[in-house]
Structure formats: structure tokens, C-alpha cells
């Protein structure tokens, strides 16, 4: 006969086991985005260097037991579409991942390291906030995109963001002119800036931001934003300044861009000298989609 006391002990052990199991289960995260298809990323993904790749579409699932599944499609861009010539090529990559958290001073606090079963090395992503992640170089630097695509991936189903989890790596560059390019989704920016009068069918914006400095003091002076909305190029003059530190991120550096035809400034979080993240009215990075992220890349 099993005593009532032993039954209670058994039930308690079962509850504790279920509780521990729940705590050790990593919730599933699905990240999507499109990145350039240059040589370093082809090497990371074990794509032949002879393959012509304009861009790569990502669908990355991480979750239970620290396993991940990555589905990519890639190839030459089909003009005037968001797809590939002849449908492109696909690859399915599975493996394990490790989350490293850095409590010591440094720009990155949380990094996901993916080890694919058939990949030559790890793929590392730094967590910008709960909804935005950015792929790192082999030297743990933010990868620099181009005028078409960036190296950010976004959570497919965004959640409450919290604070930005990286500090700006900023060298106080003395260049008299800085130029950044990129393409972003349209409607989120249009909602923040209705005076842009973007059509409801607008799905992307093309950007070129040129920042000028004083030749003696090197302080920010004027700027020009060239964006293309509904296939109409616009060159908009303005001014810019550098903001250092926010209430939640004392190490943040933000470029504040004020232009003539926008009621509110454009705020850009400086990831480093080469990568800028668009901020929304709550000072959080915009969450991108499967086609574009909200990033500008320095024109090299």
C-alpha cells in the first residue's frame, strides 16, 4: 500500500520536474529578413563562391533544446520584383545554438552563435533589442550592407521591445562628409511622417543620407536626404547633430536629422561608424520584414 504521505511526495516531485522543464525550454523565435549575397556571407552559409547571389532571404527558427532551423533562398534579383530569376536556389540548414551574455563593458550584451551541421564555422548574431538582430563578421563587428540590403534580421511576430541591448561603438570620425545608403519598408516610416504623403501601396523607400561637418571644428553642420517615395526622387536639405546618451542607454550615440519638410526629426542609432538603425518615436529600432530592414549602411 502507498501511504498518503508518499503520494503527496510523488505529486510534489512531478510538479517540480514540470517546473524545471518549463524553465529550461527556450521559447521559439522566428527571424526573417533579406541580406546581401557577398563573399563573406556566402562563405558562412557554404554557398559556392561561383554562384551569382544578389541577395539572400532568411527564415531562422530557434527554440527548444537549443536547436535551430534556417531556410534560405538566394540568387540573382528579378528586376522590379522582390524575388529571384528562375525562382533562385534554396538551402535548409539545421544545427545548435549558444547564447552568450556579456556582463562586462563592451558594445554587445547578448550574442547568438549558430553552429550548423554542414557549415564551416559559426554564424553570430547580436541582439539589438527583442525584435532586431544583426549578423556579425568573423571579427565580431556589425556586418556592413549596401544600398539594397542590410544584415539585420527581424522578429516575424514582434513583441514588447524593452531597451536597446548594444552600446554605440563610435570613433568620433573626423571625415568632412559621411554618406549612408539603404532601403527600408515604407508604411512604418510614412505613419511616423504622414507629411511624406506616401501612397498606401508604397512598400519600400530608397535612402541616401549625406552628412557634412565644419572643416575647422568638425562639428555637424548640414545634410541632404535623398529618398525615393513612390518612384519620385526627393533631395531634402537639413541639419544634423549628435546626441550622446539616453535615459536607458548612456553609451548610445544618436544622429538627429532635422529636414525642412518633416514635422519630426529622423533619429538614427549609431551601431558603429558604418551601420545606423532607424528609431521610432519611442526611441526603439523599427522592426523590419522579410524584404527590408530599417538600416543605413556607410557607402565605402
Instruction: Indicate the low-confidence ranges by residue numbers.
Output: 4-25
Main sheet summary: 8 strands, antiparallel, barrel
Taking the alpha carbons of the first and last residues, their distance comes to: 79 Å
Q: Give the overall pLDDT as a whole number.
A: 88
Q: Specify the structural class.
A: mainly beta
Radius of gyration, in Å, reads 22 Å
Number of H- or I-type helical stretches: 3
Strand numbers in spatial order across the main sheet: 1-2-3-4-5-6-7-8
Beta strand count: 16
Instruction: Name the overall outline.
Output: globular
What fraction, in percent, of the residue positions are helical? Answer: 10-25%
Query: How is the quaternary structure best described?
Result: single chain
What would your notes on this structure say?
The protein has helices at 4-24, 39-44, 187-192; strands at 29-36, 55-62, 67-75, 89-101, 110-116, 122-127, 132-135, 152-155, 177-185, 204-213, 220-229, 232-244, 253-259, 266-270, 275-279, 295-298. Residues 4-25 have low confidence and may be disordered. The radius of gyration is 22 Å and the shape is globular. It contains 3 helices and 16 strands. The strands form 2 sheets. An 8-stranded antiparallel barrel has the order 1-2-3-4-5-6-7-8. Strands 9-10-11-12-13-14-15-16 form an 8-stranded antiparallel beta barrel. Helix content is 11%, strand content 41%. The chain is mostly beta strands and 300 residues long. A hairpin with a 2-residue loop joins strand 11 (220-229) and strand 12.
Amino acid at each position: 500500500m502507498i501511504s498518503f504521505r508518499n503520494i503527496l511526495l510523488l505529486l510534489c516531485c512531478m510538479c517540480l520536474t514540470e517546473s524545471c522543464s518549463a524553465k529550461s525550454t527556450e521559447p521559439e523565435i522566428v527571424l526573417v529578413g533579406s541580406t546581401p549575397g557577398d563573399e563573406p556571407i556566402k562563405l558562412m552559409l557554404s554557398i559556392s563562391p561561383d554562384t551569382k547571389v544578389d541577395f539572400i532571404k532568411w527564415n531562422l527558427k530557434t527554440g527548444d533544446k537549443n536547436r535551430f532551423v534556417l531556410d534560405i533562398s538566394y540568387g540573382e534579383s528579378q528586376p522590379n520584383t522582390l524575388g529571384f530569376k528562375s525562382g533562385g536556389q534554396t538551402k535548409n540548414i539545421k544545427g545548435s545554438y549558444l547564447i552568450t551574455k556579456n556582463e562586462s563593458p563592451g558594445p554587445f550584451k547578448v550574442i547568438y552563435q549558430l553552429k550548423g551541421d554542414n557549415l564551416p564555422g559559426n554564424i553570430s548574431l547580436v541582439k539589438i533589442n527583442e525584435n532586431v538582430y544583426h549578423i556579425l563578421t568573423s571579427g565580431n563587428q556589425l556586418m556592413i550592407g549596401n544600398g539594397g540590403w542590410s544584415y539585420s534580421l527581424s522578429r516575424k511576430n514582434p513583441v514588447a521591445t524593452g531597451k536597446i541591448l548594444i552600446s554605440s561603438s563610435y570613433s568620433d570620425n573626423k571625415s568632412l562628409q559621411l554618406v549612408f545608403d539603404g532601403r527600408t519598408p515604407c508604411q512604418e516610416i510614412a505613419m511616423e511622417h504622414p507629411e511624406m504623403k506616401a501612397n498606401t501601396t508604397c512598400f519600400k523607400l530608397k535612402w541616401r543620407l549625406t552628412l557634412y561637418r565644419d572643416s575647422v571644428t568638425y562639428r555637424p553642420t548640414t545634410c541632404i536626404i535623398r529618398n525615393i517615395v513612390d518612384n519620385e526622387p526627393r533631395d531634402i536639405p537639413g541639419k544634423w547633430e549628435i546626441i550622446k546618451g539616453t535615459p536607458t542607454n548612456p553609451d548610445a550615440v544618436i544622429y538627429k536629422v532635422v529636414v525642412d519638410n518633416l514635422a519630426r526629426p529622423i533619429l538614427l542609432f549609431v551601431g558603429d561608424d558604418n551601420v545606423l538603425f532607424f528609431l521610432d518615436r519611442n526611441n526603439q529600432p523599427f522592426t523590419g520584414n522579410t524584404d527590408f530592414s530599417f538600416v543605413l549602411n556607410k557607402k565605402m
